[in-house]
Amino acid sequence: MAGRFQPGTSRATVRGGATSAPVAIPRQVAADAAPCVRRWTPPWPLDLGLVLGPLRRGPADPTFRTTADGSVWRASRTPAGPGTLRVAMRAGTVEAEAWGPGAGWLLDGLPELLGAADEPEAFAPRHRLVAASLRRRPGLRLLRTGLVLESLIPSILEQKITADEAYRAWRLLVRKYGEPAPGPDTGMYVMPETRAWALVPSWEWHRAGVDNKRASTILRAVKVARRLEEAAAMPAEQAMARLELIPGIGPWTSAEVIQRSNGAADAVTVGDLHLPRIVGYALAGERNTDDAAMLELLSPYEGQRHRAARLILLSGRTPPRREPKMRRVDIAQW
């Protein structure tokens, strides 16, 4: 049927948070309601795949899509209600359409979503590898969604398990307890509202492979959702401190969230299984780097450590694997 959603064949890269956004071609979208439209021309190069890639939680994320016409789609629960946003680049201009009660909110925040609040000019490469990675990606900007819970809940799901397990849990829970995204028939879903998260039965968490510790952390978070959403307007350190008031949310989770919600350029992820070794190998040739050593290596980038780590991940220089991957444990089979 003409105008229906056409799933893209690309998939997100594991390292660096990039996702493929094909070259845009003219396309008409059939919708059950006329979208709100905005056009915006950024005064700097922009790579949609690099900028928006960190929002994608696996290749089958029900809240995120890329399509063959060069569009990136995301479904969000905004302060004004659910909304769907489609973004494409054509001749250096961003063309955006949005549907649903949250359409105006999404379009108002479009420039910051695409990195308008970012300050890459403050970044000075101190290593040849980082400088080369930066030169190859002039369109990289750090996004800012202004939304905390939409990054917090999947980040909690990703604690201490493999990415595939976390992506599966997010996909199952959003499809079962979320709602179809407004606008065209995309097959996308908006994540559940806070009350819906609070009403998920214990056996459904179990069926999705989510243990009681992570489920309980999510339930504690949704009870104070309004206070947590306020963190999007706070300086990074204050925002992280507010999130970490919730038992079960530590530095790893808070950094992963405010990198996206606040566009925090210095929020380097600590407590990660792989990142310290990748940074150590890329910058010092060391394969067994811990968090303390990673932070020491990144100290020349104080104020921009997350950007430096992202460029290192995008460089593709990773240590040879010498141990098995984290073992998958499917608690739904217990």
Automatic annotation (TrEMBL):
Superkingdom of source: Bacteria
Reaction equations catalysed: Hydrolysis of alkylated DNA, releasing 3-methyladenine, 3-methylguanine, 7-methylguanine and 7-methyladenine
Classification via InterPro entries: Alkylbase_DNA_Glycosylase/TA, DNA_glycosylase, HhH-GPD_domain
Regions that span the bilayer: none
Keyword Iron-sulfur: no
Keywords: DNA damage, DNA repair
EC number(s) stated in the UniProt entry for this protein: 3.2.2.21
Protein name per its UniProtKB record: DNA-3-methyladenine glycosylase II
